[in-house]
Amino acid sequence: xxxxxxxxxxxxxxxxxxxxxxxxxxxxxxxxxxxxxxxxxxxxxxxxxxxxxxxxxxxxxxxxxxxxxxxxxxxxxxxxxxxxxxxxxxxxxxxxxxxxxxxxxxxxxxxxxxxxxxxxxxxxxxxxxxxxxxxxxxxxxxxxxxxxxxxxxxxxxxxxxxxxxxxxxxxxxxxxxxxxxxxxxxxxxxxxxxxxxxxxxxxxxxxxxxxxxxxxxxxxxxxxxxxxxxxxxxxxxxxxxxxxxxxxxxxxxxxxxxxxxxxxxxxxxxxxxxxxxxxxxxxxxxxxxxxxxxxxxxxxxxxxxxxxxxxxxxxxxxxxxxxxxxxxxxxxxxxxxxxxxxxxxxxxxxxxxxxxxxxxxxxxxxxxxxxxxxxxxxxxxxxxxxxxxxxxxxxxxxxxxxxxxxxxxxxxxxxxxxxxxxxxxxxxxxxxxxxxxxxxxxxxxxxxxxxxxxxxxxxxxxxxxxxxxxxxxxxxxxxxxxxxxxxxxxxxxxxxxxxxxxxxxxxxxxxxxxxxxxxxxxxxxxxxxxxxxxxxxxxxxxxxxxxxxxxxxxxxxxxxxxxxxxxxxxxxxxxxxxxxxxxxx
Length: 585
Ligand code: DGT
Ligand code: CA
Ligand code: CA
Ligand code: ZN
Hints:
Layout lengths: L1 H18 L5 H13 L5 H14 L6 H13 L3 H8 L5 H4 L7 H11 L4 H9 L11 H19 L1 E2 H19 L3 E4 L1 H4 L4 E2 L2 E6 L3 H9 L4 E7 L3 E6 L4 E7 L4 H9 L2 H13 L3 E3 L2 E4 L3 E2 L6 E2 L4 E2 L5 H7 L15 H6 L14 E2 L13 H10 L4 E4 L14 H18 L2 E9 L10 H4 L4 E5 L8 H12 L6 E2 L17 H10 L3 E5 L9 H9 L3 E5 L11 H10 L13 H8 L2
Helix pairs in contact: 1-2, 3-4, 8-9, 10-12, 17-18, 20-21
The site of zinc ion (ZN) has 5 residues, from loops.
């Protein structure tokens, strides 16, 4: 699939041009790359069907880039790009992944102290060698070290969307090539944890060797780490590890419970089983009494009578517990809740009636209103809100006041044509003093206003708390978007006191977003539960930048469920009429 390779190459070239202070080209290359990432068709298919002209018809792709793409499709390389890559130090691209390190600073580092890689930067910062370079203070040094630590951590664990795509592909492959009786992914992925260490796959089959064989021979296996009669581990081309276990069909429920984890949940469950006189393991739940084994009629020894039934539900039931959804299995008191029959009925994907954060070509998105609306309709939604960035957002290509007025007209036209409700919204920057980035005259006319921190992330606790609470006091604001502004593995949450933020949100009747972008997932579970203690209400949104981005809803739902959120606490489960009433100021 060349799309991903080409997009990656364009990003890389953009970074180098940026470093070399080449004008406008970096933006153009990045725009083209984002466009390619969001295409649903393979570039080589477009080329096959419509030739180079077909590529040039893609918005953001001009003649020159189209030519490079054709060269890549035909030869697997682009001569011009190879020359560009040779013209700059190798580590530049990686250095750009460090938050707080822009092209200007990288140029300084290379020129003044010959630092050309992340490893080199880390060593230099530790030895305080950055002092004295223009633009680098002691604080920059500390911030960079923190960013590097985050970057390194992020390299070790996979983002959930990448892990899920890989797992789904493996399941499809194994179904086709080994037809096991049962097959699921388990582990942290089934629990919808924000990042995934390795992928765990569980199969039930009488002929376990056939499944193992198909698994180790999958086309994108780079290396087989271990292979036995019932288990195997591999590394995929993308670099992630996958464990496979194949069990006897009658052990499947217990094995699924065990390999879903978490380990802490398993341990508590096993202790409870012992207290009740049972034995719980990955092989099954076994009763205390001796008895005749089903089928064979053989007398079996103590503790060997299988009583687990065929489902996880049955096992929980035998332990006098309510069923505990995978997302809750983190040893946070869920077993006590299940004993008291108080497991909440968690929000589900099918409860969602609309998506209330997305971006289009009016700011930094890739697609038209029509495309977004049609995709939303295909998901069965009743409504969406378009929430392009506000005027101060330079990185996000924010909308000027004349842009937004033009946008409103277009929204009305598209909504009419598509017979679909499109709310006029905006993701408005919360400025450093807590004011919103549009005048009242604009805010008043918007159906829905999201407020976001997009700058000044390093403010100290008190100032940041005050900044956000000021915004929450603004009568035009509805939703605090991605409330901590973290980016997983890249940027730590800001310093605000979130308990105070949640209290202020509830007092002012404001909604907290659970952002489903896999690199954000913000709020995350512990903060969601804290917000719940304050009786907060939530919205689960994707922050999509393309129609495909609307599919990220499942990750937002996963995080909400990890935070024990119920349908009634989520405003975008409301039908349109009730939602509108709620948004009315
Ligand atoms: P990860 O891969 O770091 O994102 O997290 P998990 O939860 O997928 O952990 P992993 O892959 O090491 O193991 C998969 C499941 O197997 C885990 O969630 C629970 C179970 N498991 C692993 N080791 C143990 C153990 O020592 N004791 C018990 N009770 N369960 C274990
Ligand atoms: Ca795992
Ligand atoms: Ca594992
Ligand atoms: Zn944002």
